[in-house]
UniProtKB/TrEMBL annotation:
Pfam families: XdhC_C. Coiled coil: none annotated. This is XdhC family protein. Transmembrane segments: none annotated. It comes from Rhizobium helianthi. InterPro entries: MoCofactor_Util/Proc (IPR052698), XdhC_Rossmann_dom (IPR027051). PANTHER family: ALDEHYDE OXIDOREDUCTASE MOLYBDENUM COFACTOR ASSEMBLY PROTEIN, MOLYBDENUM COFACTOR INSERTION CHAPERONE PAOD. Residues 78-218 form the XdhC Rossmann domain.
Length: 232
């Protein structure tokens, strides 16, 4: 691999930027496409599929085969709330290749005993996210039911264009949340991206079932996410 290509891959990894390296096998020509960058011709569909699936592979074109080598940032979940639901998410997320961080300032809940081996931060979300900003390859799930903890994280997730933003609570609870977010300066279109009630509608009632519904909705949102410059 050419040194400049390798350097560009490393830069993308550091910036959590998604790229596809295209290698035209007949000529040996190599080029890099960033997520959202326009691609002309018959390669466009294959490149978009590669970004959504994360799978590398061959594409047949009129001028010969092209190998698509996909480099995606590891998708991650930031869960606001060290609760029973996130105890289950902590088991599900690694199985589906998602990194997980749990944030909760309530030290009675955010304990190593309850979340052994989990990236757990007992601090206020706004302070944590100021040091490690959210991005387009991050899902945010707010499950504390406490506006003082959830709202600031939801606002940042919307402003940072997280691919998934979900919040626990009934429709009545969410209506009040919408009003608070409006007062925080969020636009209707931004607020409308919040999945609330959180999770796919599977009739979930237990923490285990709710966590499963959330995880399924996150996977669905990631695989069908809107790429920059395109609609989902």
């Amino acid at each position: 691999m050419e040194l400049d290509i390798l350097k560009r891959i490393n830069q993308a990894r550091e910036k959590r930027q998604a790229i596809v390296v295209l290698t035209h096998l007949a000529s040996g020509l190599t080029e890099i496409v960033e997520e959202g960058e326009a691609v002309a011709g018959e390669l466009a569909s294959s490149v978009e599929t590669a970004f959504r699936s994360g799978r590398s592979g061959l594409c047949q074109t009129e001028t010969g085969e092209v190998f698509l080598n996909v480099h995606l940032p590891p998708p991650r979940i930031v869960a606001i709330g060290a609760v029973h639901i996130t105890q289950v998410l902590a088991r599900l997320a690694p199985m589906l290749s998602f990194d997980l961080t749990i944030v909760d300032p309530r030290t009675a809940f955010a304990t190593p005993e309850r979340f052994a081996g989990v990236d757990l931060i007992a601090d206020w979300p706004e302070d944590v996210l100021a040091k490690t900003p959210l991005d387009a390859h991050t899902a945010l799930a707010a499950v504390t039911h406490d506006p003082k903890i959830d709202d600031a994280a939801l606002a940042q997730a919307l402003r940072r264009n997280c691919f998934y933003v979900g919040a626990l609570g009934s429709r009545k609870t969410h209506a009040k949340r919408v009003e608070r977010l409006r007062h925080m300066g969020l636009a209707e279109e931004e607020i409308g991206r919040i999945k609330a009630p959180i999770g796919l509608d599977i009739g979930a009632s237990t923490p285990e079932e709710i966590a499963l519904a959330i995880m399924a909705e996150i996977v669905q949102s990631f695989r069908l996410r809107a790429l920059p410059g395109r609609s989902a």
